[in-house]
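User: Hey, my collaborator sent me this sequence without any context and asked if I could get a structure. I don't really work with proteins. Can you help?
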Amino acid sequence: MTRRAERAWEWAALAVGLLGAAAVTRGHAGGWNDGSRLAAAECLVERRTWVIDDSVFLRPPADGPSPYPADNPFLQRFGTLDRLRIGGHWYTDKPPLSVLPLAAAYGVLHAATGDTVRGRPERFCRTLTFATSGAAFAVAVWSLCRLGRRLGLAPPWRLALAASLTFGGVAWSYAGYANSHILLLATAAALFAEMARPRRTAVRVLLLGCLAGVSYGLDLGAGPPLLAVTGLWALCRLPRRGVLLFALAALPWLALHHGITYMLAGTWKPANAVPEYLAWPGSPFVHGMTGRWNHSGVGAFLLYALDLLFGKKGYLPHNPPLLLAVVGLPVLLRRRPREAPELLAAAAWAAATWLLYAVSSNNLSGICCSVRWFVPLAAPGGVVLAVLLRERPAWRADFAALAAWGSVLAALAAWHGCWMDHLIPGYWVFVGLALLSWGLVVLRRARRPAPMPATLPLRGPHRPAGYHPSATSTTTEYGATA
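Assistant: No problem. I've predicted the 3D structure and written it out in structure-token form, which is a compact way to encode the shape of the chain:
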């Protein structure tokens, strides 16, 4: 396939991602999480301050258009409760870097049209959400398609991989609201696509460092482990000069995040990890603050850790193709493919993020679809699935069965929105059908007779005269000689 044709497939994936994001983008804030981010963006542009005291997302107007859904009286009355009380003023509790893209989009909109949030809240929410979360979702689809190309998948399977992890999981529902999880999915997918490059120029290494640094500041739960894992990968894969370039590219983003946090909250650690800033009347976080040990014992911790993955909000049942990635990873590592460092990096980031939240939380990420903290983990899952589909073509039927039912769950989640306070309708039925379909595929493969060997036997009376093992070769599916 020509280079132009390769690019055409990827541009098609980007276009599909944009269309999918546009289909689910909402014209309101759906909960505390996105309301808090949009409040900070509003005040940064209109008042040049991080203080959100006068934001319509903090104090919705009693008369006039509201930025919250009409069928949610609690939000209509109280606004966002994702906030910090610092020095007598209200601030968002979200990382500064996750707010800056929203502020940049609002700055462009405000300068071009003169519209304000109070006058046009529906237009404000829809435009800013699509410009940030929607664009990030499309970048994630595009990056996962590029990842499949660099890991040796044929074009149809690249698109299937990208679609299964975005339109076949909960990520699609998060594209409809302003949040940092979908932003981190985009940067992580782009990061792993760059890590899969066989050749890395200085510019590409700088890009890797920038992506890792931005990821650190977008989400202070999953971002720091990603930077640490990527740094270890760089030490193994890059020359000394490359490691230095990587660090220099990541450093400014870390300085920007911590500099703004210190300016606002007087601390180098996350501002929402300071108990005093959450100890205001009516705060829902006084007894359930994430970021510290939150369990009565080891048994409770283990049950909660499993609940994060497999329970009623568990991340893996909500994203069925990733179940195949979990099963396939040990199989791949035993074969020691050339992408072993990338596979280990992907697995290490996913495991570290899971364990970090298992230790430091107890609320399954609050009111949302599945566990929102794990939305970015579709990116490392893509690394595993891409190599698995290449190395084990017989497992593609397993992947197709799980992806088909995952798309049904994803469509229902996108319809209801990510800030839902209930299970996806029919959730356990669809999860059961996905597992049943997968089991039937495995059973059918197990009953299939084993294929004839591709090479002649090394021993026995049927070996031809003059035969020597080094003179034989096996042709793989992609035409390479092994």
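In plain terms: The chain has one domain: 24-446. You can pass these tokens on to your collaborator as they are.
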